[in-house]
From TrEMBL:
The lineage of its organism: Eukaryota, Metazoa, Cnidaria, Anthozoa, Hexacorallia. Its main location: membrane. Residues 223-240 have a biased composition (Basic and acidic residues). InterPro entries: GPCR_Rhodpsn, GPCR_Rhodpsn_7TM. It is a multi-pass membrane protein. This is G-protein coupled receptors family 1 profile domain-containing protein. It comes from Desmophyllum pertusum. One of its GO terms (molecular function) is G protein-coupled receptor activity. Residues 29-309 form the G-protein coupled receptors family 1 profile domain. One of its GO terms (cellular component) is plasma membrane. Residues 219-245 are annotated as: Disordered. It is found in: Cell membrane. Keywords: Cell membrane, G-protein coupled receptor, Membrane, Receptor, Transducer, Transmembrane, Transmembrane helix. CDD domains: 7tm_classA_rhodopsin-like.
Length: 332
């Protein structure tokens, strides 16, 4: 039995309210991240270049896509023409592709940072210029795969549940099928596979490191802690912590931040992805409210990201606090 695609008034009010809050939070938070990273010399480091890339991809949704979804939900129809509906679908695809690529690059970088000795890290990690080139390449990659439908490679379709356009995953014809297959492989499967591989290797490094630490502490007899004429193992341990402990703590904190970003992305996109796959096989059995809730949740992700790394990163938190203080102090 075919279900009505129209949302009830209470549902629409909740959806629009959440989207309005998300839109304001997305625009304000990501602009603050962009301004701080571009203007502050102390934030010109690889980690913050990644945040810059994520903020730019999130800002695309906050500025261009969320306002159009709000209008579509209120009017129960797409407010602009077919061309802009297609462009909306391309921008959504661009944002998610770029987020996946950036998270993949961060994951590989975390593995690189943890797998290299601290004393050699300065020589083995990428230069700032190379980091910038890698991020630019990820954007070119994302734009290429997202813009296929604009050049008749693949197509978009109107979603009667959300009154917006989206890629036509089940489209007929060779162009549609090859585009869907290539997009699934090169923009999703390979990056996600690389991400999983990087974190599996990070897990193995962490487990091996823990075993070495445990073995070192348990194998040292109490009477051997200090031998006359030899160095003090406790002092050596303190010196080691002084030289490498801070870097390790920073690496661990950065790793947890990336895992939070990946977890947030996965949680926010899961419902909409599952609903989309469900519709491919049973188009008339998917509750419209599930599809709309999934879309709202995906758009909330671009508001969550900047708060994660602004709260987790002390430098970023300090710079944003100073910016907010300057704005409000100037107005009072």
């Amino acid at each position: 039995m075919e279900q009505s695609s129209e949302a009830s008034l209470p549902e629409m009010i909740i959806e629009v309210t959440v989207l309005l809050i998300s839109c304001c939070g997305t625009v304000l938070a990501n602009i603050m991240v962009l301004v701080n990273v571009t203007m502050k010399e102390k934030l010109h480091a690889p980690t913050y270049f990644y945040y810059l890339s994520l903020a730019a991809s999130d800002l695309i949704l906050g500025v261009f896509c969320i306002p159009l979804v709000i209008a579509a939900f209120i009017l129960h129809s797409w407010p602009l023409g077919d061309t802009l509906c297609q462009l909306y679908a391309v921008l959504i695809s661009l944002s998610v592709n770029c987020s996946i690529m950036t998270l993949t690059i961060i994951s590989v970088d975390r593995y690189n940072a943890l797998s290299k000795p601290v004393e050699n890290r300065a020589h083995l990690t990428f230069t700032k210029r190379r980091y910038k080139l890698i991020i630019i390449a990820s954007w070119v990659h994302s734009i290429f795969w997202a813009s296929g439908p604009l050049f008749k490679w693949g197509s978009t379709k109107f979603d009667e549940f959300t009154h917006t356009c989206k890629p036509d995953w089940g489209g007929e014809g060779l162009a549609n099928k090859t585009y869907a297959l290539c997009l699934a492989i090169f923009a999703f499967a390979i990056p996600v596979g690389a991400m999983i591989c990087a974190y599996y290797k990070i897990y193995r490094i962490a487990r091996a490191s823990k075993r070495r630490r445990d073995a070192a502490y348990t194998s040292l007899p109490p009477d051997k802690l200090k031998v006359p004429g030899e160095s003090d193992p406790l002092k050596e341990d303190a010196a080691t912590k002084h030289t490498s402990g801070t870097a390790t703590a920073e690496d661990n904190k950065a790793l947890k931040t990336v895992l939070l970003l990946i977890g947030s992305f996965t949680a926010c996109w899961s419902l909409y992805t599952l609903a989309t796959v469900w519709k491919l096989f049973a188009p008339n059995s998917v509750p419209p409210s599930i599809v709309r809730a999934g879309l709202v949740l995906t758009l909330c992700n671009c508001c969550i990201d900047p708060f994660i790394y602004s709260i987790r990163d002390e430098k970023m938190k300090r710079e944003i606090k100073e910016m907010i203080c300057r704005v409000f102090c100037r107005n009072t």
